[in-house]
Structure formats: C-alpha cells, structure tokens
Amino acid sequence: MSRIADAFAACSDAGRAALVAFVTAGDPTPADTAAILDALVDGGADVIELGMPFTDPMADGPAIQKANIRSLGAGTRTADVLAIAKSFRERHPSVPLILMGYANPMTVRGAEWFADAAAEAGVDGVICVDVPAEEDDALGVALRAKGVASIRLATPTSDAARLPAILTGADGFLYYVSVAGITGQQQAAQASIEDAVARLKAATRLPVAVGFGVRTPEQAAAIGRVADGVVVGSAIVDLVGEHGASAPAPVRAYIQTLSSALADARKELA
Amino acid sequence: MNAPNSFRAQPDERGHFGDYGGRYVAETLMPLILDLEREYRASQVDPAFKAEFDSLMTHYVGRPSPMYYAERMTEMLRNSAPEGKGPKVYFKREELNHTGAHKINNCIGQILLAKRMGKTRIIAETGAGQHGVATATVAARFGLPCTIFMGARDIERQAPNVFRMKLLGAEVHSVTSGAQTLKDAMNEALRHWVANVHDTFYIIGTAAGPHPYPEMVRDFQSVIGTESRAQMLEAEGRLPDLLVAAVGGGSNAIGMFHPFLDDPDVKMLGIEAAGHGLATTQHAASLTGGKPGILHGNKTYLLQDEDGQIAEAHSISAGLDYPGIGPEHSWLNDTGRVVYEGITDSEALDAFQLCCKIEGIIPALESSHALAGLIKKAPTMDRDQIALVNISGRGDKDIFTVADAMGVKM
To answer: Which positions carry N6-(pyridoxal phosphate)lysine (chain B) (predicted)?
Structure first.
C-alpha cells in the first residue's frame, strides 16, 4: 500500500476523516518551511500538501496569491521546493506528501524530468490545477510511470458525464473542490457537500477529500462526518502570512483544533 | 517539421495546433468551455447567426474596411531602396472600424454567442483599454452588464480609455495583484469567471486562451484577410507577395494571415515587440525571445525563466505588452509558414511619426511595429512586388505615450 492509502485507511480505522494541510513552499522563506511542515505534522495533519509557488496562480484567492508572492520574492526556486520535500521525507518517513501547483513550473523541463524529481524527493502525489483530464497525456503518464499518484480534482460543475474522464487515471484520493470559485473565499452549503460526496463515492473507490473555504473546526467537523478527508489551506497560509518565521507555534495550535474536531466529529453522530 | 497539406486545417478536435493550444484550465471551467465549443459549432452552421454577424459588421462596425494604396509610403521606400527595389505598399484600414481598431470584430462575434448561450453578464480583460472599450461597446449595444478587469498600473496609464469604458456603462475592476498589468488582469478575470460560470460570458480579446477561444477569435477576425484577398484581386488582379502584421496575442495578424495560409506565393511577416531590444530582458517577443510553456489555458511560447516562472513583458505599445502569444502563431512559427521578427520601441516610434507625416494617418503603436517591419524589409523586395500591411488600429490613444517618448510636454 502507498503512504496515501495507508494514511486514509488508518484514519478510517480510527473513525475520523484525514486532515490534509496545505502550505506554500518557501513562504516566508525556503529556510522557514521545514519548521512549519513539522508543526503541521505535530499538530495532527495526516497528509501534507506542499504548494509550488507560481507567478500566475489563476485558481487561487488572495491568501495563497500573497503566499506565492512572498515565496518567490524570497527567491524560492524549484530546486528549493524539491529540497524541502526531500528533507521532509527524511524527517517523516510515513507522512504522505503531495505537491500542488500549476502546469508550467511542473512541465518546463519536461514531464518526465518532473516525475523523476518528485519520486526522487519522496513525493507521493501531485495535484496540477490547470491540467484537466483532457490534457493529461504527458504529466499523468510520467507520474504513474514513477509511482507518483496523479490526484484529480472534481468540482460542483463536474457532472455525471465528466466524472468517468476525471476518474480515469486518478490515483491517491479524489479532491472535491466544494465551491465553483477560487481558494479561500467562501464555504459551500453542507447539504450540497454531502450530496456531492455521496455521488463521488458511488463512482470511485478512492478516498474523497473536500476542500476550498474550510476554516473553522466546526466546518471541518461537519465535512469530516461525511468525507474521507478535509483539506485546509488558506487559513494556514494566512497564519504564515501573519506570523512569518514564528508561524510554527500558531500553526501547530490551529491544526490541533482542527484535528481534535475531526477526531470527535463522528462520535457526536453515534 | 514536414509541411502539412493545408495550413488552414488547425486546430484538431481537441484544440491543438500541432503541439500548442489545448485546454489547460481548472476543472471548474472545463464543462463551460466544452459547452462553449458546442455552441460555437452550432453557430457556425446557423444561417441566422451569420446573418446577424454580417449585418452588424456592415451597419455597426462599418465594414468592409478599405484597402488603401499608400502611394507616398511606396515612393519614400523606393527612393531610399537600391535601384529596382521597394514594393508597392497597401494598407488594410482596420483603424477605420467603429471604436478604432480590429478588436470590435471579435467582440461582435462573442457577444452574439453569449446571447445565444443565455448568459446575462459579460467580463473581459484589457491592457491598454482597447479590448475593454470594444467589449464595453458591444455590451452597451446588447444591454448586458459588463465588468472589465484592468491592472491598476494600466488604469493609471490609460485614463482616457478607463473613462470611455465608464461612459459606455462598464464597471472597471482595478486589479492590484502581481505587476498590475494585462497578465494579472487576465488572471483576475479567470478567477472571477470560475466563481461565476453559471451566468457569465468571458470575452477574451485575443486569439489565445483555452480552446475554442484561439480558433473562435481567429475565425471572427478572419474577415480582415478575407476582405483583403478580394480587395487585392480587385485592385491588382493578383495576390500580394507579403503580408505584414503586428503580433501581441496575435488576433489582428491571424485574422489577416489565415485566409492566405494556403497561397504558397504569399509570404507573411509577424512583428513582435522587441521593446528595448531582444538582447535585454525588456521586450515582449515571446517567439523570438521565449520558449514553449503553459499559461492562461494554452500551451504556447512564453517569456519565462528556467523554472517556468512567467516574466514581465515590456513594450512601448500596451497592446503588445504580454508575455505570451496565440498558439496558432507558435505553430506557424515552428512550421516556418510565417516568419516572425522583432521591432524595438524606437523603430516603432520612428514609423509612427513617418506614417503621420507622409500618409496623414496616425497609426496605433501596435500597427507602427508592423509598419517598421515593412520599412526594414522593403529594400530587399522588388519594385513589382506588393506588400500589404495591417493598420490594425488608430493611434489617437497613443499620443500621450508618443509625446512622452519624444520629450514633448502636453
């Protein structure tokens, strides 16, 4: 089994949803990211998403846009992102690590180069925001050849006719973007999330994680009752923006509130 | 690369021009652009759609635009060329269209599609404001609310166009992310579109973006080349030897070139903005100074660093100031069918002033790049050859920039 599957299975056995935590690599500087990642793991994150900074993050709201600008402004290069991943893998041999970002930085040296580099750095999966299933004949193929999961996104606009295309070649988990919009803006109505998760779980055996706009422990718990995973990004990135190099302590404290909310979420149901 | 049987058969059914183009968008937008493609295909075979488009082109835009024999430009080029050299020069007068540029051709086509799809709001990005003004114009004409995304820096530099858009009833949304110019305006328009897919139509201003935009914009702009072809046959009884057009995103150039692509004797020259020079980082020449990558929904040549981070473009012409180019131009470049060269800010300024003085036409700075490309090429062309330059827009909008560059206080 892969680290991603193991992590989701362990959470499922423990009766809770997996907590998937996102931060932008190199924010505020490449040297600060390791301690922030450690704080995420310490606080109880089950899966780590490491954002690759890009000059033109078209799908991201203001919080992650600013994180990209801070990171690139601090001189973060692709080599730094890979080095951050590699040292994370050495410190945390069993915690799944996902790279999330945009097509151009991932494919500029060729999809094979990137798949090699990601595998070499101990990365378990890749989310490429602007490579939909229809254009995935290079990147997805290269990643699969190296045993790196190609994680697909489904959205409220992905109707039944599109789902088979999205699920073909999908691996790791299915990331349900709960609002038609950009990251960190608003949260979808709980009922619509529940409907969507049920629809997706009927179509795939992959775990389904839900993200976009999740900020509070209450929101996380509500989603955690129905989904296999809850993704939190902008709220963490905002803490990094506010606290900079001293972000690890507040990030750890915040993740702990989410993690315990998820641990209790399904007990309240029983 | 082997020459294809036809240069006019692109893109393929997935929107690829050779290796370029495609649909590199977030999943949220995929169903919408697939829907747009279906509606576009249906409109292509709908006589009522074509009739409405043609009627607006004639009575609202003022087409056909004239093809004009630039007699004094021809004379001047011959006088400074070696004996027997210097072509006969014609201008395609797109600057005489309603709103003063070719941009309106595409906006008419897209707003008719928006209406057909039942969309009730229009958004667009703009750099210098020309596409914003053209979009605000058609939105006013069709009574649809319209939001134009424009970089905060461009809003400062282009105050007259901002006021024009507001007069036309558009809301101008100031974009403060990134470098606050065209690229960032496009990012913000895409973000807004993702959040409002249910009721909003995005009128992209150039032959770029995800499929079907590059094909669709090209088709709407092909009226330029189709008219030119007929006008040249009428005037000269033959086709031109050389077409010249400026290329930013490339919509006026592809509109001019596409109807001629399978005429092997017609050579084509696309002029990119070389800014302060191709040897500097201050230019906007994606083909001559960039490499292939993925941005704004398509794979195409981009100005970028070795990590794939997008570089800021520079040109004195705000309409050419973009780090990418339409994907069909990338393909035409690689096949060799069209030759692309750079013209610097100062070469374009010289051509701008020359055209004002000897033809009584104030060309847009974009079109001045094409003119400068012709002026460079002319000494190598024979007297009995014919060159056709696309004067894609008028230069009234540029007089402040030109005055500033000439050191004139207004």
So the answer is: 103
Confirm or reject contact between A129 and chain B (CB < 8 A).
yes
Residue B127 has pLDDT above 90, yes or no: no
Q: Which two tokens stand for residue A79?
A: 């080599």
Q: Is the model's pLDDT at A184 over the cut of 80?
A: no
- What is the rounded CA–CA span in Å between residue B160 and residue B332? 36
Determine contact: A154 vs chain B, CB below 8 A: yes
Which residues of chain B are within 8 Å of residue A106 when distances are taken between CB atoms?
308
Q: Is B167 exposed, middle or buried (0-12, 13-18, 19+ CB in 10 A)?
A: exposed
Shortest distance between the Cα of B308 and any Cα of chain A, in A, equals 4
Give the pLDDT of residue B329. 98
Distance CA B325, CA B334 (A): 13
CATH of the domain at A229: 3.20.20.70
Domains of chain B and CATH, by start: 16-59+103-217 (3.40.50.1100), 64-100+222-406 (3.40.50.1100)
Nearest CA in chain A to B293: A104
Q: Which domain holds residue A71?
A: 3-269
Q: Is A169 on the interface with B (CB under 8 A)?
A: no
In the residue annotation, A60 being an active-site residue is answered as yes
Q: What pLDDT does residue B158 have?
A: 85
B211 touches chain A (CB under 8 A): no
ipTM of the complex: 0.96
Q: Decide if B176 touches A, using CB distance below 8 A.
A: no
A112 annotated active-site? no
Q: Which two tokens stand for residue A188?
A: 């979808």
Q: Is the Cβ–Cβ distance between A9 and A58 less than 8 Å?
A: no
CB contact under 8 A, B307 and A108: yes
Number of domains comprising chain A: 1
Look up residue B202 and give its DSSP letter. Answer: E
Nearest-angstrom CA–CA distance, B386 and B374: 11
Bond before B64 cis per omega within 30 degrees: yes
Looking at this protein, which amino acid is placed at residue A84?
I
3-state helix, strand, coil in chain B (%, to 5): 50, 20, 30
Closest residue in chain B to residue A128, using alpha carbons only = B26
Tokens of B202: 């995005």
Please give, rounded to a whole number of angstroms, the shortest distance from the CA of A268 to a CA of chain B.
33
pLDDT at A249 over 90: yes
Structure tokens at A260: 């315990």
